[in-house]
Design goal:
Blueprint lengths: L1 H24 L7 H4 L4 H22 L2 H5 L7 H7 L12 E13 L2 E12 L2 E14 L2 E9 L11
Antiparallel strand pairs: 1-2, 2-3, 3-4
Length: 160
C-alpha cells in the first residue's frame, strides 16, 4: 500500500524540481526583453518613433543642424551633411518652420511610418506640406532611416 504514495511523492518532487529548473533557465515564466521594460514591442516602437521625429522637427524649428543629424541613422549622415542647408534642405536659412506636428504613426514595410505636417514660411508666403519619416531600430537604438514628401491620413479614432 505504500508504493502508490512513494510514486506520488517522487512525481511531485520531480515536477517541482523541473519547474524551478525551467524558470531558472528562462524557459517558463520569464518575460520577453521588450516586456521587461514595461512596454510591448509595438508600443515601444510607436513611442520611440514619435520621440525621434519630434526631436527632428524641433531641430528644424530651432535650425539646429547637429540636433537634426543626431536623429538620423548613420547611413544618412553623409547625404544629410551635403543637403541639410542647401536651398531645398530642411535647415535652409531662407525659410522658417513656423509649425510642425505629427499627424499619424503606423507600422510600415521598413519600420514605423510617421506622418507629419510642416508649415514653412518664406517671406510672406506660408505653406503646409506633409512629410513622411520612416523610423527603424538600428541595434539597440532607434533612428530616422528615410524622409520623403507625403504621408498617411490620420487613422480614424477608435469607436467606444
Amino acid at each position: 500500500m505504500r508504493y502508490p504514495y512513494r510514486r506520488s511523492a517522487a512525481t511531485a518532487a520531480l515536477l517541482a524540481t523541473g519547474t524551478f529548473a525551467l524558470v531558472g533557465c528562462g524557459l517558463v515564466g520569464g518575460e520577453p526583453e521588450a516586456e521587461q521594460s514595461g512596454r510591448a514591442p509595438a508600443e515601444e516602437a510607436m513611442l520611440k518613433s514619435r520621440e525621434r521625429v519630434q526631436a527632428y522637427l524641433d531641430a528644424m524649428v530651432a535650425k539646429d543642424v547637429a540636433a537634426g543629424r543626431s536623429q538620423l541613422c548613420a547611413v544618412l549622415h553623409e547625404a544629410f551633411d551635403a543637403a541639410a542647408t542647401e536651398p531645398n534642405g530642411d535647415f535652409a536659412d531662407h525659410f522658417e518652420v513656423s509649425k510642425s506636428e505629427i499627424t499619424d504613426i503606423r507600422p510600415g514595410p521598413s519600420g514605423q511610418e510617421v506622418s507629419t505636417a510642416v508649415t514653412v514660411t518664406v517671406g510672406k508666403k506660408k505653406a503646409t506640406r506633409p512629410l513622411l519619416f520612416t523610423v527603424t531600430r538600428d541595434g539597440l537604438d532607434w533612428c530616422i532611416s528615410d524622409e520623403r514628401p507625403g504621408g498617411h491620413s490620420p487613422a480614424p479614432a477608435p469607436t467606444p
